[in-house]
Here is the input.
Amino acid sequence: MTRSIRAALPRTRRRPTAAVAAATALATAIGILAGVPAGAATGKQPGNAGAAPVVTRAALDPKLVAGRGAQVAFLEQEAENAATNGEVIGPDRSAYTLPSEASGRRAVKLVPGRYVEFTLPAAANAITVRYSIPDAPSGGGITAPLDVAVNGKRTRTMTLTSQYAWLYNQYPFSNDPNAGLLHPDWWITECSCVPAATTPYPSIPTPFRPSHFYDEQRLLLDRTYRAGDRIRLTAPAGSNAAWTVIDLLDSELVAPPRVRLLAANVLAFGADPTGRRDSAPAIERAIAFAKRTGLSVYLPPGTFQVNRHIIVDDVRIEGAGNWYTVIKGREVTLPAPAPDGSVHTGVGFYGKDAADGGSRNVHLSGFAIEGDVRERIDTDQVNGVGGAMSDSTIDGLHIRHTKVGIWFDGPMRNVRVTNNIIVDQIADALNFHTGVTDSRVAQNFVRNTGDDGLAMWSEATANARNTFDRNTVQSPVLANGIAIYGGTDNTVSNNLIADPVREGSAIQVGSRFGAEPFTGHLWITGNTTARAGTYELNWNIGLGAIWLYALDRSIDARIEVVGDTYLDSTYNAIMLVSEWSVKDLYSISNVHFRDIRVDGTGTSVVSARSAGSASFENVDARHVGAVGVNNCGSFHFTPAGSEFSLNDLGGNDGGWLADWQLPNTITCDDRPPVIPPPPPTTW
Here is the structure.
């Protein structure tokens, strides 16, 4: 949910199971920068090479992230740890490359005829494959086959697609790889210039800034296979894709479909489970009947075509499970722009607008929403779930290929968003926008968003007393894993955030996008980040794994950062910064870091590029690439020292916070060399 750091662009309306525990014992410590666990493939493996299953979480040894992130039903296996006769690519954290957007920054590239083979760590009857294939020469994507074999016997051929991948150019991006600059009047790093104001006009290669390469597909297998069985993925010899990159495989034992006999079954109202006919009217008839009779609505197994919003209020809609019930629609061009600026509509379940009182008592569970969004148009309301829903629950959905998985426009209160999987979004996975209060987002899994994974945006009205707890956010292509823009008494706790790619951090606290000020407290507690802190394209500097940013106003509410762990940060672990144009207007203060562990930074533990202060207590660091503190303050370099002060409350181990750096010694090295740290290990 970011705009360019220029802050001048338009906004988007945007217990582990026994099997998991057993598989965890098989995992070995993973090399975070190199991404290679002990004994794993480091290049091509011969075709008969067996590989014991290496189970990871966000490409990490699960021991490193115990208690953090979502408890999910599937087991993750990175392709680079499997048997393959393909090419292991990466590691690379530079934007616009295939490895940079891969989980753990490594993947396996298959040319036709090559394979990657995974050994199941536990019984499974379903898999998810995260992959990338090339775009069409003029954009729009291609399709290509991928053979799936179990124990040497081909069972299925998946049809992969790049129709929902491959964006180019400047925000809000283009589907055309050959397009010229969308904004030639913007400064760009590639030429260190404003092209439109430069003579001669610089040569800008195309495709310009390709990104958003990956997609994923799920496949129910023909039966349940045992631990130790081998799943081989092969790019067949006749594939029209010059290459197929496999990032990872998730395997899962999916329960049988749920059946609700005492419910308004949408089939009784004319819904078509084959997906050939539009089922929206039938679903709406079932909703009306359910409200009259006090029943819930049941969506049985099948694919139901829905190409517009279904408005929900005071209703419970249950599917047979998100592997079985799919609500799928195409994007539809409106005959004229809607009052909200939308030029398209598409599949989505929406509460009534907040201005019309919003909806209440809405409960959505157990189905998938499959959209058809292939371009970013911020005015479009083409989200999986939207509107305003108070006293409501969203549980167990799988949402893919929408603009934003769940975008709530408040004011609204008391919504619970739990146990959902939100992947392959053009923008955010979830955004609490404008006056969302007393709500909770927990145990959700997010991967491959085109903007912030989870966000609270207090535009016009403050969000308050909300919690983001025990969620996993992986590989946001642009912006942040979790972002909080203003608000009162909100909490970010026990989350796992890994691999942000571009112009963002794992966690951002931002006074920006016209958000209301931070007031009261903000608690950031017990989170783990991995391989976070990206290169900021417009500033030409590296960011922190956690990034506090004062752009629109000062940040002076009490912010408590307690018990976080920052693993293998690409640049800094902690960054506090104000935009250059307002560096003498705004500051960051009243920030308190306590009981923090920093295992590996490419540059510093703390980078301060703002006036203000922060306290540090029991912040332990090791494998620090540069000086522990990079204190530039507001860049005035006064005789009195930096405008930013560090308050040492004791117990800060590892030598990163020395007496000579306190309280405000200038230690400004704006772009220190990056020294990749060794892989993190248990403390």
About this structure: Residues 27 and 54 are 5 Å apart (CA to CA). The longest helix spans residues 280-293.
